[in-house]
Amino acid sequence: MKSIRLFSAFAFAAVTALGSAQAGVIPTTVTATGNYGGSLSAINDGYFPSDYTYWQTNSVYFGPGVSTGPTATFNMSFGGLYNVTGINAAVDNNDDYIFSFYNGANLVETYTYPASAGDVTASQGGQQNFSTITGYGGPPVFTAVDATNVIVTAANGDNLYAVGEAEFIGSAVPEPSTWALMLAGFGGLALAGRRKQKKPRFGRQDAVAA
Predict the structure, then answer these.
(1) pLDDT at res. 205
(2) 144 and 81 in a common domain
């Protein structure tokens, strides 16, 4: 009985740890290199400018057409290892936006949202929303990846770039200690079951003989 209670405690702790890893919006902190305009917080404040919004409104804007200095890159850190399953973003139209996913120092995946995607044309101008989850904005297929951070930048187009929002969907990858806790719990279950099978059972005849 004691072993079973011990296993229950292990199982509860493991399930609680894994339950916290359900898919959702991954929290990010942002740093930038190079020259840009606007507020850096616009990139991850949870606000998506609507399609056709002026490119310098509620966004960080950058590129050779904005400054004679180096074009900006934005490092969005997850604060841990996450399984990233999708991207929701608002970006200026008619440019290529590049999302480079890293696991520590290792580049593990590069995703590009191309200038040709979306409904906001060059003549209309403004920001274009897209979602690899719903397919809005006509994005290419996104392949899930385990990453600790993503570097966002842009290229080509008119050299006038902007990111109004960059949101990533996914779940935390359980740490080795979590898996060890689960294995310990299953081991406790096996041990409890084995002891239960080995426990002698006394029938009425045995009790009389004794």
Answers:
(1) 53
(2) yes
Domain containing 77 equals: 23-172
Give the pLDDT confidence of 125-177 residue by residue, as tens digits: 999 999 999 999 999 999 999 999 999 999 999 999 999 999 999 999 997 65
d(CA 108, CA 78): 15
CA–CA gap between residue 210 and residue 206 (Å, rounded)? 6
Quick one: DSSP state of residue 210? Answer: -
CB 128 within 8 A of CB 100: no
Query: Mean pLDDT for the chain?
Result: 84
Q: What CATH number does the domain containing 28 carry?
A: 2.60.120.260
Contact 56, 19 (CB under 8 A): no
DSSP letter at 44 equals G
Q: How confident is the model at residue 191 (pLDDT cuts 50, 70, 90)?
A: low
DSSP conformation class of 199: S
CA atoms within 13 A on the CB side of 58: 20
